Amino acid sequence: MARPKPLSGFPEFLPRERLIELEVLDTLRETFELHGFSNVETRAVEPLSQLSRKGDITKEVYTVSRLHADEHDKSELGLHFDLTVPLARWVLEHAGHLEFPFRRYQIQKVWRGERPQEGRYREFTQADIDIVGRGELAAHHDIEAPLVMLEALEKLHDRIGLPPVLMHVNNRKLSEGFYRGLGVEDTLSVLQIVDKYDKIGADATVELLGSELGLDTDTARRCVALASIHSLDTGFVDQVRALGVSDPLLDEGLSELVTLIEEANRRVPGRIIADLSIARGLDYYTGAVYETQLVGHESMGSISSGGRYDSLASDGKSTYPGVGISLGVTRLIAPLIAAGEFSVTRSVPTCVVVAVDSEETRETAMDVAAALRARGVSCEVAPKADKYGKQIRYADRRGIPYVWFGGPIGEVKDIRSGDQQPADANIWMPSRDDLRPGVHAAE
Amino acid sequence: MARPKPLSGFPEFLPRERLIELEVLDTLRETFELHGFSNVETRAVEPLSQLSRKGDITKEVYTVSRLHADEHDKSELGLHFDLTVPLARWVLEHAGHLEFPFRRYQIQKVWRGERPQEGRYREFTQADIDIVGRGELAAHHDIEAPLVMLEALEKLHDRIGLPPVLMHVNNRKLSEGFYRGLGVEDTLSVLQIVDKYDKIGADATVELLGSELGLDTDTARRCVALASIHSLDTGFVDQVRALGVSDPLLDEGLSELVTLIEEANRRVPGRIIADLSIARGLDYYTGAVYETQLVGHESMGSISSGGRYDSLASDGKSTYPGVGISLGVTRLIAPLIAAGEFSVTRSVPTCVVVAVDSEETRETAMDVAAALRARGVSCEVAPKADKYGKQIRYADRRGIPYVWFGGPIGEVKDIRSGDQQPADANIWMPSRDDLRPGVHAAE
């Protein structure tokens, strides 16, 4: 068989790269669990009818069918393209077994049947947190969800040198209240046009608001002026007030956004900005909305987005409001890994290679390894009773820092320094930094 | 929307059940990494041509296609049905970046387009370890791989009360050498018929060996006699010798099996049995073969199987021999969970609910939670400034053991005992058992 070629859009990592991804996933899990989020996994497939509810995305769905399906098995299934549609279905299905507000995190692959194209992923990992209520969900959760994600991203910044982030936040109530205060009725359409402001500029947006929605120039200019407001602190409030619009929903939105900015600056300073151009095109958001940029890598687009939705799902009896934020794990780290932004201290979990003198004493080497493993030290027994030099090279090629010689009372060599010391396999421990592979920002 | 119904064959866990699965997955990962296995994930899809190489399994493949595929995108893809076919492809694709022998573990979902039927999974998680060589791979790895899996299963026995296992092992060289020593040429066909011995009995097997392969009765009886041999120690050697057959390959197989049994009894006593009826129908095994039963749950079939294969893959220049063993995680735990074999101390990661006196002091409660989290204690701030009784019930319904009252210098109540003590959020720690949800055998 010839050497297989990669499939466009289906990224795969080498072991060394996977160590970086694992470090990211472990940090996410740790943070989410510290905040009381329960892990959930949903099946990879949903009925096509579920997946096509958001009209627009239908074209990107991968359908799944049995190669030899028979007449009785014409169930139409597709691979999930996000973790929100499955969550909505799962919550309805299991609501009777859940306590609300229900906090869940979910880290899974999702699939999109995109046209093959540079930088487009057809399979990628997402990490989502959501807090779902039954009937009601307090507004303070709209502050909590983005703070949890910011905390995770900040840990990644501290631990492995992920570039810092800047989360751009807005509130749908603020924008909708503002438009309403201006006498505009179809606020969603305004939102969707203003969403293009970043790309097409102020004048074109004003024109579009006039030609498409019939807004007069003054009204359109004020809509665009609103979208141009941003501030790292609560200064945005005065700028909004200066536009001379008032509406109770606007006040509610302003107040919620103020609390979010204040709380974020208290908990994770300098990582959030009120940015009233953030609209999030999707129609289900009803309050806070979030988009996150990696500082210095803004061209990557938003790496973590989400918001408040007043109806994740409804089963006739109850409506389930929620707030959530999603991190595009693959989208975030695959380009950084490819660009060599991280270094890993070694490519394997192994900390110690136990050398083998001769095949007859392999069992002794296995005893040494068992003693070290019993205390959490990852070991391999050398695969062959080669000359010591070759066994040391086996370790060196993998970046394994230590080689053990002799029995449980033997000697351990740090192959980086050449330092070799007597050691007891029931006592010896490597330094904390050497115990596990370490991920760091590349120099 | 009406309450959705589960999809047959696609099991999903509730948060409490997922905690059990996570404990299993964490223990597997810990064990595999302690033995120096690197984690790899492969994409969920493979070209259909790859998946259909093992003729027989083709019918169970799920195909994947873009809902709106265009002319240029007629790639034929299917979901992987195991982790061995992807490994073979991945090793060939990335061989230039790997060091051999290469040790990898892989824990992922796999899919099989089975007819919907009780107890058949269409999506399930497998955990595989393999050691892959380039050109050659020493026989001692055939002992290592099953011992690593046994160690993981023994940890699960000790930690969460997974029933003990008994691994049934044989060696293809032993059987094939024996058949060869009897003058049989088509040893694979004998193996495949003898594989039915457990189901159809000795007489029917002898008859089949005669009618299908033309073996004389004495030869057929000795083939069946071989399959009936099993021993917890190395007693099987004398029983084989007593059948009066000799062949160099038989000697090699006997010797390898003796070493495996001896080593396993030394490292994980009482969990292995030489069972010469184990054949593993698949034609690619060439040495040691393993099947594992859960004691008291033998009707589940083998929960962990594998063996030695001399050619996982070949790219013309090099051949890649390997040895591996796979654990059917879902297959193992889903029935045990459904049968109530495990109990979990709580359904959420949360250890402490920080009570909220009034919405005005929510920020103080958030400070308490932040202080506790900084030292690894999972917290939630109560969602509502209800009466304390209601906030305690919020914790109680989730099995959360502690409720915190007041600020960072406050009081913490163990709601199980009712005991309430002054505590400092920068110092206080729960007991080790309470820190994380615990999984145990049900009483």
UniProtKB/TrEMBL annotation, chains A, B:
Chain ranges of the Aminoacyl-transfer RNA synthetases class-II family profile domain: 23-349
Gene3D superfamilies per UniProt: Anticodon-binding domain, Bira Bifunctional Protein, Domain 2
Residues at which L-histidine binds: 82-84, 112, 126, 130, 280, 284-285
Domain of life (superkingdom): Bacteria
GO CC annotation: cytoplasm
InterPro entries given in the database record: aa-tRNA-synth_II, aa-tRNA-synth_II/BPL/LPL, Anticodon-bd, Anticodon-bd_dom_sf, His-tRNA-ligase, HisRS-like_core, HisRS/HisZ
GO molecular function list: ATP binding; histidine-tRNA ligase activity
Reactions that this protein is recorded to catalyse: tRNA(His) + L-histidine + ATP = L-histidyl-tRNA(His) + AMP + diphosphate + H(+)
Documented EC number(s): 6.1.1.21
Chain intervals for the UniProt region annotation (Disordered): 415-443
GO biological process per UniProt: histidyl-tRNA aminoacylation
One Pfam family this sequence matches: tRNA-synt_His
CDD domains assigned to the protein according to its UniProt record, in alphabetical order: HisRS-like_core
Regions of compositional bias (Basic and acidic residues) in chain numbering: 431-443
Keywords: Aminoacyl-tRNA synthetase, ATP-binding, Cytoplasm, Ligase, Nucleotide-binding, Protein biosynthesis
Quaternary structure and interacting proteins, as annotated: Homodimer.
Similarity comment: family membership: Belongs to the class-II aminoacyl-tRNA synthetase family.
Protein name: Histidine--tRNA ligase
Organism: Propionibacterium freudenreichii subsp. shermanii (strain ATCC 9614 / DSM 4902 / CIP 103027 / NCIMB 8099 / CIRM-BIA1)
Lineage of the species this protein comes from: Bacteria, Bacillati, Actinomycetota, Actinomycetes, Propionibacteriales
